[in-house]
Amino acid sequence: MSEHRYDDAISYYGEAVKIEPENSTNYFKLFRVHQRMRRQKDALIDLSKAIKYDPDRHEYRKQRAKILVSIGRCSDAIFDYEHISESGSEPIPEARIAEECKDQIIAAENFYERGDWQNALNFLNSAIGHTDQAPELYMQRAKVALELMDYYSTVSDAGRVIKIDSNNIEAYQLRGDAYFWLGEHEMSKNHYREALRFDPEHEGCKNGHRLIKKIEKKAKKADAAADNGNHKDAIAMWTELINYVDGHQIYETPILHKIAKSHSELGEHEEAYSMAKHAAEVGDRVEGLILLGDLQLAGEMYQDSIRSYREAEDENENDGNSRTIQEKIQAAETALKQSKTKNYYKILEVKRNADLKEIKKAYKKMALQWHPDKNVENQEEASSKFQEVAEAYEVLSDDEMRGRYDRGEDVFENQGGGQRQHNPFSHFQQGGQHFRFHM
């Protein structure tokens, strides 16, 4: 065995056991091999057989008690230590550790039954500190962590159990539940499926897997509805999704963001603001405030938008967000400045994030509406509006000019010196680069 030929040693002592099945020494030697191989389960079996044939051998009971403590079975270890003490042996220092471990486990169980998760966790941590590999205590701590919403700890401890016992269905379910609450639904499904390989009728894993499939199906339909402009349907489906699992904050928060944006698309600005504020309360506050600022900007509540962005800036602890927030503050301040003068987006009745296709479509509509030939009775007003529409289109359809405008810079030379001189009919001329109207 000194050459680490453990398999040969096991084979050799195994043969010895067959020849002398009631010889405790052979089992003890097998225990030594399994102990060096860190196969605690086999080592414990060997020691129990050795004690069966020589129950008064103190060395056997000391070794078994030591293993029992190492795997978290401290009450069983005390039985061995008491047996040694009853024979008149000197007090064993390790017995005190086993007593402490036993008391801590009992206290943890009592707090667990009362739903006092934090105290249960504290005593479990103390008990586990006496152990080496304690799967039963890991499982208990994983359950407590789940109640405390410390999902990463649940994943970690349940993973330890699976490493020791790869067939532990309850550990797979615990990991599946934890990943679900972390919003990592694919990982959650994988763990439920793994458990169902061992027990296809396991109710907890079947229900968990079924719920995720249901959520994914509904989420896909809701996203598609929003993409197609059916925002009312999308809001209804997203709301139903939130109601599926009450308190699932990690999953709920992005849905709240989507609902808020759809309300904004529908022009339901107050509802959008309310949903964004709720998202800031239950989820990442900085992200919620940024969303609120975006929606207020879209609703032309420029001062409110600036306040929301600045509040996000004050509470932000993520350097990666700092530049984004600064840029949003600048955009809102520019929009506020533009709102007091000439607002090209408002003239064309488009959103600030409108693309070129939307801008062209709006320009065509507004130009037809205000063309002087179609407004004979109010040609003076129509000519002024028509010129504004053409000027707005000229700026917003040009990337460079639009960029300067969005940054609050002058877009035309000598802009501050008077009215921009512009030919409002240039875009209607035959052969022009844009399009021609048939009046």
Can you walk through the features of this model?
There is one protein chain. With 439 residues, this protein is mainly α. The protein is built from 22 helices and no strands. The longest helix is centred in the middle third of the chain and has 25 residues. The N and C termini lie far apart (102 Å).
Q: Would you spell out the secondary-structure blueprint of this structure?
A:
Blueprint lengths: L5 H14 L4 H13 L3 H14 L4 H13 L3 H13 L6 H22 L2 H12 L6 H13 L3 H14 L4 H13 L3 H14 L4 H25 L3 H14 L4 H17 L3 H14 L2 H14 L3 H14 L3 H21 L4 H5 L7 H15 L8 H18 L2 H8 L33
Helix pairs in contact: 1-2, 2-3, 3-4, 4-5, 5-6, 6-7, 7-8, 8-9, 8-10, 9-10, 10-11, 10-12, 11-12, 12-13, 13-14, 14-15, 14-16, 15-16, 16-17, 16-18, 17-18, 20-21
Defining traits:
single chain, mainly alpha, 73% helix, 439 residues
Outline of this structure?
The protein is mainly α.
The end-to-end span amounts to 102 Å
Estimate the helix proportion, in percent: over 70%
Largest sheet: none
Structural class per helix/strand content?
mainly alpha
State the total count of DSSP E strands.
Answer: 0
Taken from the alpha-carbon principal axes, the silhouette is elongated
Strand content: under 5%
Low-confidence stretches: 428-439
